[in-house]
Amino acid sequence: MSDKQAHIIYDKEGKPSKDAPWIFRTYAGHTNVRKSNELYRSNLAKGQTGLSIAFDLATQCGYSSNEDIAKPEIGKVGVPINTLDDFAILFDQIAIDVVNTSMTINGTSMWLLSLYVALAEERGIDLAKLQGTTQNDLIKEFLARGTYVFPPDQSIKLIVDMYEYCLRKIPKWNPSNVCSYHLQEAGATPVQELAYSLVTAITVLDAIRERKCFNEAEFEQCVGRVSFFVNAGMRFIEEMCKMRAFTELWDEICQQRYGVKNPKYRLFRYGVQVNSLGLTEEQPENNAWRILIEALGVTLSRDARCRALQLPAWNEALSLPRPWDQQWSLRLQQILAYETDLLEYPDLFAGSPVVQSKVEELKAQARAEIQKILDAGGGVEAIKTGYMKSQLVISQAERMAKINTGEQVVVGKNRWMDGLASPLVGGNDGGVFKVDPESANETVHALEETIRKRDAAKVKACLDKLREDAKAGHNLMEASIACAHARVSTGEWSGVLREVFGEYRPPTGVEGQTLSLENEKLQQVRAKVQQFMDQFGHRPRIVVGKPGLDGHSNGAEMISVAARHAGFDVIYFGIRLSAVDIVQSAIEENVDVIGISLLSGSHNEIIAQLMNELEQEGARDAIPVVLGGIIPQNDIPGLTALGIRAVFTPKDYDLMDIMNKIMDIVLEHKAHG
Amino acid sequence: MPTPLTPLVDQPLAPELLQQLQQASALKKWPLAKLISLFENKNPDAAQIRHDIARHIQQHPQDFPRNARVIGFTGTPGAGKSSLIAELCRKLLTLNDQIAIAVLAVDPSSQISGGSILGDRTRMHYGKKEERLFFRSQASNLELGGVSEATFQATRLLRHLFDLIIIETVGIGQNEVDIQFLTDHTFLVMQPLAGDQIQFMKSGIMEIPDSFIVNKCDEERLARTSYHMLRSSLKQARLVDLHAQDNYQNAARDQIFLTSALKGLGIDTLANAVLNIPQRRTAEHCESCYLRKGVLRRYGEFGLKILKHEMNLLDTATTFEEKEVAAFATIQRHIIPRQ
Ligand code: B12
Ligand SMILES: Nc1nc2c(ncn2[C@@H]2O[C@H](COP(=O)(O)OP(=O)(O)OP(=O)(O)O)[C@@H](O)[C@H]2O)c(=O)[nH]1
Ligand SMILES: [Mg+2]
b/e map of A2-41 (b: 16 or more CB within 10 Å)? Predict the structure, then answer.
């Protein structure tokens, strides 16, 4: 009998073996249910085992496609879902008792799960067979992602309702998925990512425990259902250490805080989407390498390897990926898993003093931060006070400042900027994906049909029951499933609960924030500000506005902080405002310039609304408007024709260049107006 | 040596400004916003325009029937001032279908760049157009005192156009004293059980408020304990006679309001109290306070002393601008011969 060798993986019988690869995921959904269904079926036919569904922003924020606020967004960044009839088409010819369905849905997750359950019931499928995940992490929505619907306390209540229901009825469903992915995208450092997501898990589990609806064994099972969705950035060694720290801290929390005995229920189960914030518009082909390196951080080390991996595409900073772009990223995973020997070795870093020391450092810092938040009242309180959010803004501002000064090198952006033109963007479509604007009609039409056919009295009765249950504090799953069967719409379900629970705007985190950036360009812009003040007797005033349902706040936050640093008085009041809100504020505040930030792809529609609103108020030519965000080059002439004075995109990363341009526009406008 | 102010001339209001003023008095937001900017304007030539506008209003009282009461909200940062003001306005607008309200919300300026991020609108967002409510953010412009000169200037105009002016000060806690020059009534907003009551006692800010609001009283129990704590501190400090029962409504009799902006509790009581606040300070009172502030800033205590002896010189001045010109000129005369 020979001894076992350290470099070989042995299976249960002691035979040398090899690991199975992680799950390859592709996040998909767009246009309408019919188109998305075709896409899913073709992906499944290609051997994909699970679905990862992207919903459009109206569905995510709880509006039906026939509402005004939804119109610019229908089918843009995901599939629109209004009623059970839509779900029937979305999953047409897809065996939902077999397939694993992951839904990126948060504010309205209870509703989408109810639709899924109702669909299974209509098809006569045993609910116990359903498997999948609703993302349903509302804390990170308030911090980073922006598709919350109800206030923090009620949001947590809905999550607990779902845990209670799922554990009993759909035991294979993950009612929520704790996300640190989005935190890193909002600027989080590794320690913040660790701390804030673990606080999130604690907040949810504490709330479940408080309800006392489970016995000890059930509660353990509940802890076991908590899974994570994590980010992995360019500093891939540190990221690997972060994953190990996650695993160890989670085990610690499960044992110490929740007394979980079964090791199976203490496993840190996680999926990954690699960092997209660092992917550039400049020399976009370089992103392919970045994605590869980021993937290594979460695959190299066996002890901290992800269970599922989702990769962005090379054209991340340009627009949504086209099918070919997604395929190229999928191939990366396949090559890594099947062509290399990665899966043949046990953990490569176990026992490394370097790795261990780094892991310990991360753990210690994360523990301290977690304790700080718990001492100050916990996760929900830290949302309400804005503590976590303001910390993220600080980190993002530091990151931006370092890129601006060149301290953090980004190849093609602040170093080696000269390069040959990329052939990748040379195609007819400019390398970007576009949703056919006509397709929204199909969605609205289908909703109208459903409304016409459904039993109105039954709809009313179901909504009344939902309202009553909400007021009484009951678990809302059953009432929601009944609504789903009755063909209630997404907007109606959310509307009733908004009425009972109210709405909430979280702190923006930008107040009082500074930028550590001192350079010549700053002096230039401050001189322009001074010139303006001498001439006009007040500081230049800017409204930074986020109209529509777009939740990408980083850009607006950084512009606000930069403008304050330059000497502007900045009016910024958060995301998800209407064009009317922004125009009203610009007028009441008598601003010198309006700055709009839009990344979700609805800029053409929303800028038209905004300019129209300005026109109606008689202020269209009086206040210059500039725009920033993900704006494809081809759209710029149209936007300029609407009256936009300048368009900034991710390649305009130098904040003081932007401020100088804005001051030039303001001064020039004043001189001619 | 500060330069003397340019003398003012009496002239009719420029037609364009007259039109703006008329529209503003019909609560049209855009012209109103522009006029406020003129009152906030720091350029010397803006004084003449303000003088013209003030004169016009004085001479046409029938065109400006409104005469606002001014209410201040001060208190610790994050106590919920903005949220509370938002709820209060919502309630006032429904309780009284005629009332027109202007809100001035002051946020701090950066010490380094002088710029600011004005975020009080985050809480005031209504999601629709509200004709009778006007909201304006102001930067503190590095002035101590919690409210800026611009706030004073804006109220000069707004008091003729609105029924109620609500001022939210910078939540710095310690330097909020200026607010009392401007308002008919000042509320101090605090959070329950934060121990900050004790802090306030020491800082002298307790002297300023006319009444107290403990916000974030989301539950009855919290409200009750907070009321007891505040009440006993007040009793010690001011030897006031406190007698009310400890619930949302009755506490108001002691000028302690218990509210939850989040749950809409105690807002009714507060709103009714606000509607009944009498006008206590005249515009002249505010103006002379700010005149003294201006003198103090330019000429120090010496200037104030002269001003006190030469008060009669201001008798003929009709507007704040005239008073400033007259006062500064007089003080200047006293200084120059000595050099
Ligand atoms: C970070 C990020 C996120 C974060 C956002 C965190 C946050 N709080 O902001 C998270 C992970 C939450 C997220 C979520 C989603 N995202 Co995203 N996200 C990004 C990403 C990677 C970077 C954006 C960013 O923050 N950059 C950093 C900031 C500082 O730069 P910036 O916003 O570009 O701003 C600069 C300039 O554009 C300009 N600027 C911007 N605004 C303004 C305003 C003014 C006045 C001025 C002067 C200048 C200016 O100046 C800034 C400084 O340089 C982009 C892709 C990319 N690499 O750009 C995708 C991207 C924007 N996301 C996308 C999508 C689809 C989503 C989702 C809708 C997915 C889904 N179906 O659920 C969700 C939902 C979000 C929501 N509620 O709307 C798409 C949008 C597709 C499109 N437009 O066609 C993109 C392009 C990715 C892609 N290729 O698919 N996302
Ligand atoms: N629980 C609870 N939270 C509240 C209440 N009122 C306000 N808040 C929260 O307290 C935080 C601060 O509220 P703001 O209204 O911005 O407070 P503020 O005093 O205007 O703050 P500054 O202007 O920054 O000084 C926000 O997160 C509010 O949601 C309340 O009655 N109950
Ligand atoms: Mg405030």
Answer: eeeeeeeeeeeeeeeeeeebbbbbbbbbbbbbbbbbebbe
Distance B210 CA to ligand 2 centre (A): 21
Q: Whose CA is nearest to atom 28 of ligand 2?
A: B80
Please tell me the distance from the alpha carbon of residue A425 to that of residue A633, in angstroms, as a whole number: 11
Helix axes A236-256, A190-211, angle to 10 degrees: 20
B149 lines ligand 2 (CB under 6 A): no
What is the full DSSP assignment across A494-530? HHHHHHHH-------S-TT-------HHHHHHHHHHH
**Is CATH 3.20.20.240 what the domain over A20-385+420-425 is classified as, yes or no?**
yes
Low-confidence ranges of chain B (pLDDT < 50): 173-174, 239
Please give the residue of chain A at the shortest CA–CA distance from B34: A590
Strand partners, A134: A103
- d(CA B71, ligand 3 centre) in Å: 15
The complex's ipTM works out to 0.92
Amino acid at A347: D
Report pTM: 0.95
**Structure-token match 């993937």, residue found:** A295
Q: Tens digit of pLDDT for each residue in A23-32?
A: 888 888 888 9
Average pLDDT for residues A39-53, to the nearest whole number? 84
Domain segments of chain A as ranges: 20-385+420-425, 520-672
Distance from CA of B43 to the nearest CA of A (A): 5
CB contact under 8 A, A511 and B119: yes
Bridge partners (DSSP) of residue A570 are: A542, B117
Closest CA to A91 of A136, A39, A128: A39
According to CATH, the topology of domain A520-672 is Rossmann fold (3.40.50)
Contact B30 A619 (CB under 8 A): yes
Please judge whether B117 and A560 are an interchain contact, meaning their C-beta atoms are less than 8 angstroms apart.
Answer: yes
Tens of pLDDT, residues A635-664: 999 999 999 999 999 999 999 999 999 999
DSSP designation for A79: B
